[in-house]
Each structure stands twice: as C-alpha cells, then as structure tokens.
Design brief:
The complex is a heterodimer. By secondary structure, chain A is mainly α. Chain A has two domains: 58 residues; 200 residues, no CATH class. Chain A contains ten helices and no strands. In chain A, helix 5 runs antiparallel to helix 8. Chain A is globular and about 70 Å long. The model of chain A has no long low-confidence stretch (mean pLDDT 92). In chain B, strands 6-7-8-3-9-10 form a six-stranded mixed beta sheet, sandwiched between helices. Chain B has a four-stranded antiparallel beta sheet with strand order 2-1-4-5, covered by helices on one side. Chain B has six helices and ten strands; from the N terminus they run E-E-E-H-E-E-H-E-H-H-E-H-E-H-E-E. Chain B has a single domain, classed as 3-Layer(aba) Sandwich (Rossmann fold). By secondary structure, chain B is an alpha/beta fold. The model of chain B has no long low-confidence stretch (mean pLDDT 93). Classes of the chains: A mainly alpha, B alpha/beta. Chains A and B meet through helix 6 of A and helix 2 and strand 6 of B.
Chain lengths: 262, 201
C-alpha cells in the first residue's frame, strides 16, 4: 500500500486553488465558497480521523453513541439550512432529524446486528463509517425532498386550495406534488445504483481498492452499502415527506403556509 | 331554523360578522375592495384560520369533516385553478344540464384545461362547483370576466339551482344592475363591518 504524504495532498489541493483562481473572475463569491469548503474538508476529515483513531483504540458503546448523535445533529442542521422555505420554529429542524434518526439509525442497526454481525456489534470501525454513509445520503434525499415540497406548496398554493375548496382531502390536494417530491428524493440513489460500476466506481469502493483491498471483497461491501443507502434514503424521505405534509395542513385540512418561515 | 348561519365570524383583519341565509335566498355582498369580502368567503369555507360559529342546517361546522363541509359550502374563487390536463378530469359528476345552461356542449369535457379563455374558465369553474351539489354557494364575482349573454346565463343558472336544490347563495358583486336583477337581499361590507340587510319587496 502506498502511503500518502502531506506533499501529495498539497499537490491535489493546488488543483482546487487553481479552480478558485479561475472562477474568481466569473463569480468571486463562489470561488470563496469553494476555498472555504475545501478547507473544511481538510480540517473536518483530519479531525474525524483523529477521533476515529481514538475511538478504535477505546471502543465503548457510550462513545460510539455520542459520536452518532453528534453526526445526527450536524446532519439535521445541514438539512435545515439547505431549505429555502423551511418550517418555522423547532419543526424546521425536527422533521429532518426525526426522519433521519428513524431511517438511518434503524438501517444501520439492522446492518450491524443482522448483516455484519460483529462482536461487539457496535465496533466503531464498522458502526461509524456505515452510519456516516447512511446519514450523508439520507440527508441529501431528505433535504432535497423537503426543499421541493415546501417550495412547490408555496408556488402551487392556489391549485392546492382550489382542490380543497371542492372538498378534496389534504392528501388528494397534494398528491401530485408529493409524487414529484418523493421522486426527486429517490432519483439520486436510483441513478447511482443503475450506473454503479459502469459509469462510475463508487467512492467507498475506490477508496478500499486504492488502500489495497481485494476488488471482489470491496465490491461486496459496496453492494451492501448501496442497498442500505437506498433503504435509508428511501424510508427517510418517506418519513420526512409524511411529517412535512401533516405539518402543512391543520386538522381542518387548511393549507397552513404561515407555518413556513418567510 | 336558518339554512346557514354565521355568528361572530372574525379573523386577524376582519371584524365580528354575523348573518344568516334562508333556503332559496340569494344575498348579494358588496363593498369597497380591501374590506375583506374574499376573506369572509374563505373563512366561511373554512380555508383559513378564523374564529366564530358557522352552522349549516343547525350543525356546527366543527362537527363535520372539513371535506364534507367544503362540498356542502361551495366556494367559487374569483380566479379558478385547473390542475389536470382535460376539463372533464376536474369533475366528480357531470351534469350535461348545467353545462348546456352555461352554453357548453358535452365535448367541452375533453378540452385542454390550459387553453380555456378566462370567460370559459369562469363558467366551467361554476359548473365544476355545482357538480358537488352544494347547499350553500359562496360566489366571488362569478361574472367578472363574462359578456352580457354569459352573465345572464350564469345568473339564470344560479337562481334556478337555488330554487331546485333549496340552496342559498352569497354573491359578491359590484354591479348595481346585477344586484337589482338577482338579489333577494343585499349586504354591504366595509371596514366597520356588515351593514344591511336591506330587504327588497
């Protein structure tokens, strides 16, 4: 296995800097965002590397649990900030967190206890990366779906209300939007599964192969991860859309756009 | 017992309103724009959060599922919306009778909803609403985009409907001649609240 040094990474970083310099003329703000994001990647990944190293040396359920919760809170914040019109108050944060918790944690537990079946099941070397992959993808699906749902409800409020006026239920009135939203939440993972191996080698597998793992072994893990992600992102999006639709209407089935932040 | 009654209806920008409708009654509602006529109709249809008691045949609206309430208390917005491709897909039940009274042939149901003119939209929205057979009609300027011939068709259809179904109607209009033609009573809404009823002989 070839060890990467700081110098090697700096060379790669130069590419990002070159991109930032080039794009600064077209869109200065974006160039700045790019640099900040790249810097965040370097710092965050280094930190998590150190945390994981410490955690692997000292694998205790409490620490694994704490780190998982921290990951969940950060993912919840991320879902919230990515929404143009989020729900006001704690709902803006809560819907994302609850649906991610329900889907990602359940799927991760299932994978760890039933599929991987390690002793102990919470061995951080498996638990944390698995949960991380799940949370990351579920987060994307949920953020996309919630953003589209609130945005569509806002834009199409006249149509939704026109249907309510005719005595349609809230569920009927948003059925079309709901379909579109659910589709937009699931399309990324469907595309990823359909193109996997042919167009692109998934990142996790690539990383494993670069690190010297036997390709067929890497593939098995990648297939497992793909299925888990599909389930996690799918059920998470379902849960988030379900909760959000309930919040968009009250018990008299009135469209409550006043519950969204202005 | 009144067919329809509102007591102390109010919401953020609307005062304390009380009025009632009897069977077959057509009450015209007028008043300056911004006085809250549309908000009043929306509240009666229970589309927005509002306070007060509203009864249909003595039954408080909260005792009915909201979908049932809105089928019975049909609200026609000033602007109609169409979500499916053809006109027919928006109807639960088709009454050729109503369509022909509004000057349409049956084939209108196959038309593209998107390509309707504003006048066609307005008349078809009324037909769509009536196909639910509501007991109460809340009409927000239902003839605003119509020529005299179609205005007359709508007026005749609604008055016929009220008589046949023993329904009642609250009709928002600014046209004095229309009030003269169709109203059994007129109400006036301004920032001070509802005035009237002015009974006509």
């Amino acid at each position: 296995m070839i060890q990467l040094g700081v110098f090697d990474l700096s060379l790669a970083a130069l590419l990002v800097v070159a991109l930032a310099l080039t794009s600064a003329r077209i869109y200065p703000g974006l160039a700045w965002q790019l640099l900040v994001a790249a810097l965040r990647t370097a710092i965050q990944l280094t930190l998590i590397g150190l945390v994981l190293k410490a955690l692997f040396a000292n694998s205790h359920l409490l620490w694994v649990g704490l780190l998982s919760l921290l990951m969940l809170t950060v993912a919840g914040r991320e879902v919230m900030t990515r929404q143009h019109r989020r729900f006001a108050g704690s709902w803006g944060y809560g819907i994302g967190v609850v649906s991610m918790f329900v889907s990602s944690f359940t799927v991760a537990l299932f994978a760890l206890i039933v599929v991987v079946d390690n002793e102990p099941w919470y061995q951080p070397q498996y638990a944390i990366p698995l949960l991380g992959m799940l949370l990351g993808n579920t987060m994307n699906g949920i953020a996309l779906a919630l953003d589209r749902l609130t945005q569509s409800a806002w834009e199409q409020r006249d149509v939704i209300e026109a249907r309510l006026m005719l005595g349609h239920s809230a569920a009927e009135a948003v059925s079309g939007i709901r379909q579109q939203v659910f589709r937009s939440g699931l399309i990324p993972i469907i595309n990823a599964m359909a193109a996997a191996g042919i167009v692109s080698l998934p990142g996790m597998m690539t990383g494993q192969i670069l690190a010297g793992v036997e390709p067929v072994e890497a593939v098995k893990y990648q297939i497992l991860i793909m299925f888990l992600i599909a389930a996690g992102a799918g059920f998470g999006t379902l849960a988030a859309v379900h909760l959000a639709v309930r919040r968009l209407f009250d018990k008299r089935q009135r469209l409550r756009l006043d519950r969204l932040q202005r | 017992m009144k067919l329809f009654e509102a007591r102390h209806l109010s919401r953020a920008t609307l005062g304390d309103l009380s009025f009632s409708l009897s069977e077959s009654e057509l009450v015209c509602l007028s008043g300056p724009s911004g006085a809250g006529k549309t908000l009043m109709l929306r509240s009666l249809a229970d589309l927005d959060v509002n306070e007060g008691e509203v009864y249909l045949q003595g039954v408080l609206r909260e005792l009915m599922p909201s979908t049932e309430w809105r089928r019975q208390v049909g609200y026609l917005a000033a602007e109609s919306r169409w979500w499916s491709e053809t006109v027919g897909e928006h109807f639960t039940r088709v009454e050729a009778d109503i369509l022909s009274q509004l000057g349409f042939e049956d084939e209108v149901l196959g038309w593209q909803a998107e390509r309707l003119s504003s006048g066609e939209r307005q008349r078809l929205a009324l037909a769509r609403l009536l196909s639910n057979q509501p007991r109460i009609l809340l009409l927000d300027e239902p003839t605003a985009n119509l020529d005299p011939v179609n205005t007359q068709r709508v007026e005749r259809l609604v008055t016929d409907y009220l008589r046949r179904q023993r329904a009642a109607c609250l009709w928002v209009t600014h046209a004095a001649d229309q009030i003269e033609r169709v109203a059994s009573r007129a109400l006036y809404l301004d920032t001070h609240g509802l005035a009237g009823p002015v009974n006509r002989p």
